[in-house]
């Protein structure tokens, strides 16, 4: 297996100014990261290179667990900020290896060209999600030799696959002290804006039961699918709320995403399952969200089998919990956060907005660390075949974080 | 492959009296038929044996198509009656080969022992559905050398599997004249009562459409499962009728038997299908039943794809027709039928009742031949692992049909 080395020659002289990012250096780092294939389960080569790169700098303590690499300053500052980015990407769709597109290249998306006129564009898998942000974090790790607060840099594996493989989750379980901090920034693409907190999510089956019979003698049975009509009626009657938390608006959702029932075309069905996804705002804990769905005293829990809802939206129905993940408050009332909000506003004119999907900010939130998403690139291009990152976003992200932490 | 021969020694002397059935002879025939394995697709050995048996009798003309054997008298009578029984059985469930259970045997079901005290019981696959009736038909074919009307005996294959394999259907398509007649009796188990006509049945998907989206941004999509709530509401609001036809009561039914929808746990579903089974009484043609469901001018048809209902129960929804089979009127107003009704009443005290499931009487009905079910054995024991036929039913069935046709 070939090994790559991330070029550190630009950092040999100690004169790099964290407030004046060098576009060439940032572009080079981003290209080197993208050029190293790292679809989930194949992060090792890139993690090795990141580890070797970080170990070159005497102001950093470097730790590793699996393919997650952590580097931190230990300067005894009053505050510690965490900068976290995942190293893995979703699978390649004819978009590897990466390439630079010069301004005017017809391959550049119209929306990218319009937002970033005259800029070069890094084309290929991972540029947006999220090796551009990783490049900025590596640059900051190299140049912030005297940061205003202590910093922990986290480069982790397995973010794009099932939650149980997530490198950040494994570090949180094995070495929670490595993730100690006062505030965290995750480099998920936001176009360098702040997306704060995230909705929680739970998924559960609402189960109706009946009695099977031949459909020629339907009155001998009891139709479980017909009973599910009431479940769908309640979903249709439910009006999802928009909830303001720390000044940001979180839009909730309650939706059936799957339905199945019946044993045969001529058999009265004895069971029907409506799979429901509830996305709830960060003003609610999982317990509070469950109380709204099933009643406060309903003991339904993961792997706990069926349990009758004693109240809430699904009162009287049997519930089987399938998945639950907490929400995360945006944490923008924190002192460090409010400074970051100000720098973003100065550089981009943008105010923080709510993150709607579930992201790893919730993992930090669960560890007691407020967290936001801030990263280079248009989030709508993540996972697409024509993932494209304009170079200007790298400099912008580096300027914002350099101002904040330099 | 071994071949079996059905014992015809009892019929060597021409003195057998069709009005005085010999229990031993009937029992022996039933046991021989049951002892020949004939699960659907494996009827050939039994069909061969039946064909050889029937060809021994000079008063019968024997025809064959596939594994369907037909024998008929050609005496120039004014009326022709058809007696039809299928030779195949559903799969064996540890109930082959068959055995005789003596009175008092603990293996005899309580309900059978109570209804037939002191009788021997034929245990095993096919006894009830419907080799007992087949044995009586073979006996009649042998002894009715001078019947009151001409008789066509039909022993057919593939009744217990999908309709396109049905031997009776294949004869109806290839040689419809072989099934000419004025009235038909099918030996489906009825405990020797008359079950007349049958409900029609149609199955169709009611399809709702939406727009897929990530469930974290549900408002970008349009939930097709939620729309199916209205379909289930209409099914719940529908009150199935009980319809009297020719003096018999037919109970209708309208039921969802399957439901499916959704593409993933986190995706707003873009399609949902509710599979509905409508069982309609013999006062309605298929076209009339469709009009009630979808509106009189809705052109929905088999293999015709989706079609919007213009009226009826499912007005406004997209429909895809999956299966349709006509109902059959009981045909009890016919002269031959009314005689049979009288003989059954004399021997059993029972009046005709409606057949609710769909049976091959509808095939005869479609050929213009009124038909009823009348056969040996308790219909509730058909297809069960402990299929049991009390010997008395064989004699009773033979007496009724012997009186009627002798």
UniProtKB/TrEMBL annotation, chains A, B:
Q: Which domain of life is it from?
A: Bacteria
Its keywords, alphabetically, are: Hydrolase, Metal-binding
Q: Which residues form the Peptidase M20 dimerisation domain?
A: 200-291
Select a single GO molecular function from the record's annotations and give it.
Answer: succinyl-diaminopimelate desuccinylase activity
Q: What does the entry give for GO biological process?
A: L-arginine biosynthetic process; lysine biosynthetic process via diaminopimelate
Q: Matching Pfam families, A to Z?
A: M20_dimer, Peptidase_M20
State the EC number(s). Answer: 3.5.1.18
What is the protein named? Answer: Succinyl-diaminopimelate desuccinylase
């Amino acid at each position: 297996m070939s090994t790559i080395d991330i070029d550190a020659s630009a950092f040999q002289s100690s004169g790099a100014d964290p407030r004046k990012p060098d576009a060439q250096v940032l572009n080079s780092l981003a290209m080197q990261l993208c050029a190293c294939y790292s679809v989930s389960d194949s992060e090792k080569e890139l993690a090795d290179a990141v580890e070797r790169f970080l170990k070159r700098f005497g102001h950093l303590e470097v730790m590793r667990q699996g393919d997650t690499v952590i580097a931190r300053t230990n300067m005894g500052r009053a505050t510690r900020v965490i900068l976290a980015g995942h190293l893995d990407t979703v699978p390649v769709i004819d978009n590897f290896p990466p390439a630079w597109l010069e301004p005017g290249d017809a391959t550049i998306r119209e929306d990218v060209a319009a937002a970033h006129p005259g800029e070069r564009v890094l084309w290929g898998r991972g540029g947006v999600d999220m090796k551009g942000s990783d490049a900025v974090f590596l640059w900051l790790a190299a140049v912030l030799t005297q940061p205003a607060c202590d910093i922990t840099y986290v480069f982790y594996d397995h973010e794009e696959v099932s939650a149980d493989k997530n490198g950040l989750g494994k570090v949180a379980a094995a070495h929670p002290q490595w993730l100690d901090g006062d505030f965290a920034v995750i480099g998920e693409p936001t176009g360098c804006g702040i997306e704060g907190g995230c909705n929680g999510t739970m998924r559960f089956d609402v189960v109706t039961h009946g009695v099977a019979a031949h459909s020629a003698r339907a009155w001998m049975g009891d139709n479980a699918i017909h009973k599910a009509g009431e479940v769908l009626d309640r979903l249709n009657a439910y009006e999802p709320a928009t909830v303001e938390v720390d000044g940001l608006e979180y839009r909730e959702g309650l939706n059936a995403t799957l339905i199945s029932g019946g044993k045969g075309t001529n058999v009265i069905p004895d069971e029907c399952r409506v799979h429901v996804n509830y996305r709830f705002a960060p003003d609610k804990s999982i317990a509070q969200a469950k109380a709204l769905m099933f009643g406060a005293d309903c003991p339904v829990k993961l792997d706990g089998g069926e349990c009758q809802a004693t109240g809430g939206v699904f009162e009287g129905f049997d519930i089987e919990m399938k998945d639950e993940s907490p929400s995360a408050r945006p944490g923008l009332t924190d002192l460090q956060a409010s400074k970051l909000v100000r720098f973003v506003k100065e550089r981009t004119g943008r105010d923080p907005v709510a993150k709607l999907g579930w992201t790893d900010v919730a993992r930090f939130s669960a560890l007691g660390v407020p967290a936001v998403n801030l990263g280079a690139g248009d989030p709508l291009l993540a996972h697409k075949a024509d993932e494209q990152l304009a170079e200007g976003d790298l400099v912008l992200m580096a300027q914002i974080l350099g101002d904040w932490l330099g």
